């Protein structure tokens, strides 16, 4: 995806709350963060607390987060739906966590890693893509907060100063 592209639509993805979701379920968000995620990746695990903190910080300003797990659950059983439900409950996720079993949504977005972020403005145009910050291992050593900066701009109706960074993490586990 390129900056300014419209968010690819999706429908009927099962959530860990046992509801089905589509892109239209987030239509009222002032900014929408779509995070391609999973259970097993150490990068994702390192970022979970930061994602939840940012969702808490920006929820009152209309931002919504949705995590989508598209990994092959056969080769990576920790990423199957039952394991997702368990992880979401144990970690008390404050964002929607969806399963993309067909991997069609991940392909439509051009996701390559977990976590890989796609942040959309209120018109669902891509405004930022890439990583969360500049230090996945040591939150206390973060100097650049890419996601937070992008969200701050978007909820204030501004264009993010930095629109693209390189997503780091585990590669998405594609089905054979």
Q: Report the uncertain regions.
A: none
- State the helical fraction: 25-40%
For the biggest β-sheet, the strand order reads 5-4-3-7-8
Structural category: alpha/beta
Please count the beta strands (DSSP E, at least 2 residues each): 9
The end-to-end distance, rounded to whole angstroms, is: 23 Å
Listing every helix as H and every strand as E from the N terminus to the C terminus, the arrangement reads: EEEHEHEHEEEHE
Taking all residues together, what is the mean pLDDT?
Answer: 97
Major sheet description = 5 strands, mixed
Number of helices: 4
β-strand amount: 15-25%
Shape summary:
globular
- Cα gyration radius (Å): 15 Å
How would you describe what is shown here?
This protein has 176 residues and is an alpha/beta fold. 26% of the residues lie in helices and 20% in strands. The protein contains 4 helices and 9 strands, in the order E-E-E-H-E-H-E-H-E-E-E-H-E. It has helices spanning 42-59, 81-91, 104-109, 146-155, and strands at residues 13-14, 20-21, 31-37, 63-69, 96-99, 113-114, 116-120, 126-130, 170-171. A 5-stranded mixed beta sheet has the order 5-4-3-7-8. Strands 1-2 form a two-stranded antiparallel sheet. A hairpin with a 5-residue loop joins strand 7 and strand 8 (126-130). The two termini are 23 Å apart.
């Amino acid at each position: 995806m390129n900056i300014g592209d419209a968010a690819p639509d999706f429908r009927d993805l099962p959530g860990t709350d046992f509801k089905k979701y589509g892109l239209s379920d987030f239509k009222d968000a002032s900014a929408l963060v779509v995070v391609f995620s999973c259970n097993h990746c150490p990068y994702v695990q390192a970022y979970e607390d930061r994602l939840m903190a940012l969702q808490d910080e920006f929820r009152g300003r209309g931002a919504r987060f949705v995590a989508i797990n598209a990994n092959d659950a056969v080769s990576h059983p920790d990423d199957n739906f039952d394991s997702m439900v368990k992880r979401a409950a144990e970690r008390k996720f404050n964002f929607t966590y969806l399963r993309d079993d067909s991997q069609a949504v991940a392909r439509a977005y051009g996701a390559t890693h977990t976590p890989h972020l796609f942040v959309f403005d209120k018109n669902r145009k891509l405004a930022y893509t890439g990583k969360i910050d500049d230090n996945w291992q040591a939150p206390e050593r973060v100097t650049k907060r890419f996601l937070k900066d992008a969200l701050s701009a978007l909820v204030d109706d501004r264009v993010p100063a930095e629109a693209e960074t390189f997503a780091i993490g585990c590669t998405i586990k594609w089905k054979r």
